[in-house]
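Table 4 source record.
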Amino acid sequence: MFISDTHLGTRHCRADFLADFLRSVRCERLYLVGDIIDGWQLRRSWYWDRGHDEVVQQIVRLARNGTRVTYIPGNHDEMLRGWLGLGVEVAGVRLAREATHITAAGQRLLVMHGDEFDCVVCHARALAYLGDRAYDFALNLNLWFNALRRRLGYPYWSLSAWAKRRVKRAVMAINRFEVALAAEAERRGYDGVVCGHIHYAEMRDVNGMLYCNVGDWVESCTVLAEHHDGRLELIDWAAENGLSFFTRRARSGKAEASAIA
C-alpha cells in the first residue's frame, strides 16, 4: 500500500476516513509517501483531534503486526528529513529519503514524495507558503460549496480539484511534474515512479515509464495498492465505500482490502 499527503494537523485532513481504511487493511508493506504530518500548518496554529491520534495508532498497529512501514518525508513534514541517514526507526516505522519497491511482477519502482521536482518549492519558498495559504482558502470555499450541494440533495464534488484540473496553467504544471518524475525514474534505471505532492491521483504511461501518483486524503481519499499478482490499482476509499465527506464519525469498517505491497 502507498499513502501520501494526509496532512495530519489540518482541519481538512480526512483522518476519519483514513483511520477507517487503516483498520480495514492488511498489507506486507506500507509506504507513507510524504506530507503525512503538516508541519507548516502546525507551526501556524495547533490542530490535532482524536481522529489524528487514531491514524497514528493504526499505523503503529500495522507495524507491530508485521507490516514493514517506510516513511518518506515530504516538504510539509521536512522537519523529519534531519533524521535521515541516522537509521532512525520509531515504533517500527522506518524513515527514508526515498525507496525502491519491486513488485510481484518484477517492476522496479522509485518511491519518492516529488517536491524535489517542484520548482516553486525548490526555488521560491515564500511563494510556496503563499500558495499553501491560498490552498487552505480554496478548501474552505470547497467546504461551504459542498454544504450547499448537500442541502440541494447533490453528492460531494471537489470544487478545488475541479479548478486545479480546469485551469490551464495548473494542468500544464501537473504535466511538467509528471514528465519530470518519469524522466528521473528512467534516468536511474527504474521501470516507473510512485509519488505524491500534487494531490492528483493518477496512474498512466508517461513517455514509456509507469507514473503513479498516490493522491491525497484532503480533496480525495486515494491509495495505491499492489495485489498479490503484482497488479497495481488506485482505490478511492470514500467513493467505493459510500462515505460522505460531511460524516465526521468513522465507520467500524469490516471489509478487508486484500493487497500486498
